[in-house]
TrEMBL record:
<comment type="similarity">
    <text>Belongs to the RNase T2 family.</text>
</comment>
<keyword id="KW-1015">Disulfide bond</keyword>
<dbReference type="InterPro" id="IPR001568">
    <property type="entry name" value="RNase_T2-like"/>
</dbReference>
<dbReference type="GO" id="GO:0033897">
    <property type="term" value="F:ribonuclease T2 activity"/>
</dbReference>
<protein>
    <submittedName>
        <fullName>S21 self-incompatibility ribonuclease</fullName>
    </submittedName>
</protein>
<dbReference type="InterPro" id="IPR033130">
    <property type="entry name" value="RNase_T2_His_AS_2"/>
</dbReference>
<keyword id="KW-0255">Endonuclease</keyword>
<dbReference type="GO" id="GO:0005576">
    <property type="term" value="C:extracellular region"/>
</dbReference>
<dbReference type="Pfam" id="PF00445">
    <property type="entry name" value="Ribonuclease_T2"/>
</dbReference>
<keyword id="KW-0378">Hydrolase</keyword>
<dbReference type="GO" id="GO:0006401">
    <property type="term" value="P:RNA catabolic process"/>
</dbReference>
<keyword id="KW-0540">Nuclease</keyword>
<keyword id="KW-0456">Lyase</keyword>
<dbReference type="GO" id="GO:0003723">
    <property type="term" value="F:RNA binding"/>
</dbReference>
<dbReference type="InterPro" id="IPR036430">
    <property type="entry name" value="RNase_T2-like_sf"/>
</dbReference>
<dbReference type="InterPro" id="IPR033697">
    <property type="entry name" value="Ribonuclease_T2_eukaryotic"/>
</dbReference>
Length: 162
């Protein structure tokens, strides 16, 4: 496998199967919530998890079932606590930093470059997403092959971290 390419939408014919187990839904909602929806709607319609699985999860479906993919996401969240990483690097919610500072704070602990995404909100640039990348078998974290430029790396542009 070529580790230098992003894998998206690998098998469009492999579809998400809605999760029926309420405990599984609650565990996933706790660790990988849909921040654009209510908890009720997120767990009932599961459109965010469907999107994530069909975009990313199908790329490792030769190795993992849908259930194993989401179990992996839960375990990843438990062992890669980004808030703890940020605190250890002096980055605290509610403050502003450069995109480079946020990026290097994560990479200094994970030893892999994340893919940060930022958007303008009420005139300010805000961190909206942190992507962590793994090889196709999800055994090893790796630097993300495609890095968004939306966080204005290499500039002094302030990025708000809520």
């Amino acid at each position: 496998d070529n580790v230098s390419v992003a894998l998206y939408n690998c098998y469009p014919n492999r579809k998400f199967r809605p999760m029926t187990d309420k405990k599984d839904q609650a565990e996933l909602e706790k660790r990988w919530p849909d921040l654009t929806s209510t908890e009720y709607a997120s767990m009932r319609y599961q459109s965010f998890w469907k999107y994530q699985y069909e975009k990313h999860g199908t790329c490792c479906s030769d190795f993992y079932s849908q259930r194993a993919y989401f179990d992996f996401a839960i375990n990843l969240k438990d062992r890669t606590d980004l808030l703890t990483i940020f605190r250890s690097q002096g980055v605290t919610p509610g403050s502003t930093y450069t995109g480079d500072k946020i990026n290097s704070s994560i990479a200094s602990v994970t030893r892999a470059l994340p893919n940060l995404k930022c958007l303008y909100y009420q005139g300010n640039l805000e961190l909206t997403e942190i992507g962590l990348c793994f090889n196709r078998t999800t055994v090893a974290m790796m630097s993300c092959p495609r890095i968004s430029t939306s966080c204005k790396f290499g500039t002094n542009k302030a990025v708000t971290f809520r």
